[in-house]
Specification:
Elements: E1 5-12, E2 18-26, E3 29-37, H1 41-56
Antiparallel strand pairs: 1-2, 2-3
Amino acid sequence: MDDILITVNTMKLTDGREEHYVSISRGGREITPHMFPGPYKNRALYEADSWKHVLLGHPKPDILDPKYADPKEGSCQQP
């Protein structure tokens, strides 16, 4: 049986903005359930960690963990 792989992929748009996608793949099949625009990679990380919890038995992510916090208004979040 093939492993389940859950990742966050980033696509850079021609105007320099980024979009972050959660991707779930197994055995050559893939689904991308959500896209998170701009500085919200943190939301994609939380989504990916939630899928890992459900599908792979990883610990349940804590929504209050600072790594999932939205960036402050006017700031840029770095990966």
